[in-house]
Amino acid sequence: MGNLLVQLFASFKNVINKGHSRSVKAKKNILIYLIINGISIFISLLMLTLKLDYLNNTKYGIWLTVSSFITWLSFFDIGLGHGLRNKFAEAKARGKLKLARIYVSTTYALLGIIIGSVFILFFLINPFINWALIFNAPPEMAKELAMLVLLVVGFFCMQFILDLIGVVLAADQETAVNDLLRLIGSIVSLVIVFILTKTTGGALFNFGLAFSGTSVLVYFIASIILYRNKYLQFAPSFKFVRFRFAKKLFNLGVQFFIIQIVWIIMFSTDNIIISQLFGPEEVGPYNIAFKYFGMITMGFSILTTPLWSAYTEAYTRGDIAWIKNINRKLKIGWLVMVVVSIIMLVIAPFFYKAWIGDRLIIPFILSLLMCIYVIAINWGSIFVIFLNGVGKVRLQLYVGIAAGILNIPLSILFAKTFNLGSAGVILATTVCLSFGPILAPIQYKKVINNTAKGIWNK
């Protein structure tokens, strides 16, 4: 038995280390990513039960709505993170290490100015905002919500800047390290929330402090360690800030920024729409179903996420054969995910029962439409991740703007007029995500075969 295990390990190691160096790096990232995300899924399931036990259904729905609102602050990134990711990868692929450091330093400076200004403005207007009214919460929670939102916004702004180390890691095809940092933050949050359930009542402020503060601490420590060691030659420095390079970051970054806005509109407004139409208590079932089928999206992202910067490097070097080979393998992976998605749909009622008991009821129609959504978005991601990596995002931008305009009215139409409830919201999102499943494969083929012209090549 011992010899058999040794042989199996040796064979597995050979498979991992076989192929192009870029493929080997991607496979190692995928393997580590798989392990880390497997643990992350388990932790998220535990965290959800702790949230439901610590907060009642109304407070849990409010927390989800607050979280959705906070993500709107990511607008102020203006796509700089994605711009840095592509420009850093391109510079490093060409051996221009000083240029890569200039991009890093300039991005930190620009983002620091933007986010600092946003927080100061928010701090000044926060006392005049009735958050209880916005979140459709009981009026007596107004003061608590004002404190909670200010706290979470403050941590989010810090996280915004600290997350740039994750961008550098991703650009250097070290996505597994970034996922490890997120895992550490999740574990620390889990421990603190568990302690809260044993020592305090269901206070949203305490929960927000525990949930938001841990990630900031982890990324702060990681930034110090990484920039003093592995990424010392790329460490941000005032003397490497070149605001004239901002245009190069913004040219691509602004397009990613608008696409980001579309995604935030489509996903962050879901909880707000459901809360306004049906009450905060209906946000919980929607998010349970989203998290359950989201495990499929998370699983497939294990294959696609490490490839963004790998595609950037391969396309910069003209290695089209490698790109086509990876694309074929992703399609096979997608077929496997389709089968898994259908199985998950069949066993969903039993899983919900074992997971959350009778705390919340999730309608079958909601599970069905969530299943269709993840199948569609995973197919599109096969091609979108390549187009993002090579910066061909103009068509995605235009289609995204149309989707952002249509999403909210479609959500209300399907949810209220067609009487689909919260299931109508995810149906509207699926309809609006037509670019990935339909147009992205066409654009990929044109770009990879060097026949893309006009909007297809921008």
Molecular structure report:
- This protein is mostly helical and 458 residues long.
- It is 80% helix and 0% strand.
- The protein has 18 helices and no strands.
- The chain has helices spanning 2-16, 21-54, 57-70, 80-93, 97-125, 131-134, 142-162, 164-171, 175-199, 204-228, 246-278, 283-304, 307-317, 320-356, 364-390, 394-417, 423-432, 435-448.
- Helix 2 runs antiparallel to helix 12 (283-304), helix 8 runs antiparallel to helix 9 and helix 11 (246-278) runs parallel beside helix 16.
- The longest helix has 37 residues, at 320-356.
- The model is unreliable at 4-9 (pLDDT under 50).
Task: Looking at this protein, list some descriptive labels.
458 residues; mainly alpha; 18 helices; 80% helix
Write down the overall mean pLDDT.
84
Query: Can you count the helices?
Result: 18
Rough shape? globular
Strand content: under 5%
N-to-C span: 56 Å
Computed Rg: 22 Å
Compressed to H and E, one letter per element, the order equals HHHHHHHHHHHHHHHHHH
Class from secondary-structure proportions:
mainly alpha
Unreliable spans: 4-9
The amount of helix comes to over 70%
Quick overview:
By secondary structure, this protein is mostly helical. Helix content is 80%, strand content 0%.
